[in-house]
UniProtKB/TrEMBL annotation:
Descriptive protein name: Probable membrane transporter protein
Localization in the cell: Cell membrane
Cross-referenced InterPro entries: TM_pro_TauE-like, TSUP
Stretches assigned to coiled coil: none
Transmembrane feature ranges: 12-33, 40-60, 80-100, 140-164, 176-194, 200-222, 234-255
Length: 258
């Protein structure tokens, strides 16, 4: 059985600036909160504890971003909602693997996948344009993989970016769709955690509410920054963010084994 690290005040204050930074990134790009927060928090605690700390702040950021997108964008995401059941299937599987296995090797696997995507123009045999003609298989593959990674290491973003950029989804719609997938995945994961025989997990999750104000404050600051970006600039910055994410994953993998 997993032994839960107590969420002490020292751990809360260590996590708070990381949560603030992740909220700022999420507000600026509309995505990225768990991708930034989880590996950084895991530098001073274990992966499971880092995932738990991020659950409630992530859901608060996701809901706020979805609400900020408005009803118009919620209508626009309907054609793409078929991915959510596959993402949830992957999340459930990944969450149980997190409870049973060592998730560290999957950090390197995901970093390699991101680097392959970013360098696909140099690798003639690897390309993703097929997803536009075969959307259902793409939803199954990318949705399940994204959920699996989200469940194990709290990292869904790179997999979904690859899919949604290839589908040429409008930026505003993409942001809402990202956050719908994140929110449903984190809600499902939190319910699974609550069903486990892990003493103190309910109180642990409740105390992470103290971190939500840090996330939401920086989220709104980031949203103001995002208004300055054109769609083309956004895509360029998104690719830059993927390079940063790949670096963080590789560093996290190295640190985990030293």
């Amino acid at each position: 059985m997993i032994e839960l690290v107590p969420l002490s005040w020292d751990l809360i204050w260590l996590a708070a600036p990381v949560i603030f930074l992740a909220g700022l990134v999420h507000g600026t790009f509309g995505i990225g909160f768990p991708m930034v927060a989880t590996p950084l928090i895991a530098l001073f605690t274990d992966v499971f504890t880092a995932v738990l700390i991020c659950v409630v702040p992530t859901m608060s950021v996701n809901l706020t971003t979805i609400w900020h997108g408005g009803r118009a964008q919620l209508r626009n995401v309907r054609p793409y909602l078929l991915i959510i059941p596959f993402a949830l299937l992957g999340t459930v599987t990944g969450t149980f693997l997190l409870l049973w296995l060592d998730p560290r090797p999957f950090l390197l696997l995901l970093a390699v996948a991101v680097l392959l995507y970013l360098n696909q123009d140099r690798l003639q045999s690897i390309e993703f344009s097929w997803v536009r003609n075969h959307t259902l298989p793409a939803y199954i593959l990318f949705g399940t993989t994204a959920g699996l990674m989200a469940g194990m290491v709290n990292v869904m973003l790179p997999v979904l970016i690859i899919l949604f950029m290839e589908l040429r989804i409008a930026t505003a719609t993409m942001v809402v769709l990202f956050n719908l997938n994140f929110f449903t995945g984190k809600l499902t994961q939190s319910l699974i955690f609550m069903q486990q025989d892990i003493p103190g997990i309910g109180l642990f999750l409740l105390r992470t509410l103290l971190l939500a104000p840090f996330a939401l404050t920086s989220l709104f600051i980031g949203m103001q920054l995002r208004k300055r970006f054109t769609a083309e600039r956004y895509v360029t910055l998104l690719r830059g963010l993927l390079w940063v994410i790949a670096g963080i994953l590789i560093v996290r993998f190295i640190v985990a084994y030293t």
